[in-house]
Amino acid sequence: MKEFIRVMKALSDPNRVKILKMLNRRELCVCEIQAGLGLAQPTVSKHLKILEDAGLVQKRKEGLWVNYRLGDGDSSPYAATLLGNLKHWLNDDPEISAILAQVPDLNRDAICSRQ
Amino acid sequence: MKEFIRVMKALSDPNRVKILKMLNRRELCVCEIQAGLGLAQPTVSKHLKILEDAGLVQKRKEGLWVNYRLGDGDSSPYAATLLGNLKHWLNDDPEISAILAQVPDLNRDAICSRQ
DNA sequence: CTCCTATATGCCCATGTATTCATATATCCG
DNA sequence: CGGATATATGAATACATGGGCATATAGGAG
């Protein structure tokens, strides 16, 4: 039960849903997600921790950067199912499509050194 | 997006999940749900309203009673999908199975007049 | 209409959550 | 080592949420 609730709570915030939709396109570092959402960096880190605890995302260190990608579903069947659903959901949502449109142009080298 | 968030928030509370699992067995009135959960009656009414606003349950008046059943999925595709998933999920959870075991014995006539 | 019962709503309180700022940690480079 | 950069953590604050009590609403019985 707690595991299920953790996944549902993680999916109950629009900014976290936006993060998942972004990561559905490609792996991203924290500063790239920050640029896409327009939030403060600590806020993004906390959202990512909540998503990670729910098994919805995984992180991979690459030097100074931390790359986040969608979870593989091993840690939670609920997360795996919902990630599958989310691939088809919300693509027509104006907020989502606006953010997804700028994902290809997110460049960590252009973003991070200007924080 | 708001519709999706509404469904996820509705599913983010253990008592509301328990209500859905109970209604998966059969239609129930408020006092029967109250007896199953052990909560105050107004609390149950508020949970039911949140579930109804998300499209997860529907109500049907029958005289003095209000019978709640699972939503038919017409109001929200997200609710419809999650209700389908929930049918298979959490059946082995101790909290859930304990409540489901007593659903067949819930009797509105025996419960409600003793409030 | 009056009384009774089942449910809904308003108010209040305790707790949880999202956010930001300031600061700590970690990693690379010289 | 020391400095710079990317990310994480802690404290503080505004707001949302779950809970119960008191009360309002709605429908049936007499």
Automatic annotation (TrEMBL), chains A, B:
Q: Which Pfam families match?
A: HTH_5 (PF01022)
**Signal peptide region:** none
PROSITE patterns linked: HTH_ARSR_2
Top-level taxon = Bacteria
The record's section on InterPro entries has:
ArsR-like_HTH, HTH_ArsR_DNA-bd_dom, HTH_MetalResp_TranReg, WH-like_DNA-bd_sf, WH_DNA-bd_sf
Q: Which UniProt keywords apply?
A: DNA-binding, Transcription, Transcription regulation
Q: Does the keyword DNA-binding apply?
A: yes
Start and end of every HTH arsR-type domain?
A: 1-90
Check the record and name the SMART domains matching this protein: HTH_ARSR
Q: Does the keyword rRNA-binding apply?
A: no
GO MF term list: DNA binding; DNA-binding transcription factor activity
CDD domains, from UniProt? Answer: HTH_ARSR
Q: What is this protein called?
A: Transcriptional regulator, ArsR family
| Native source species | Desulfacinum infernum DSM 9756
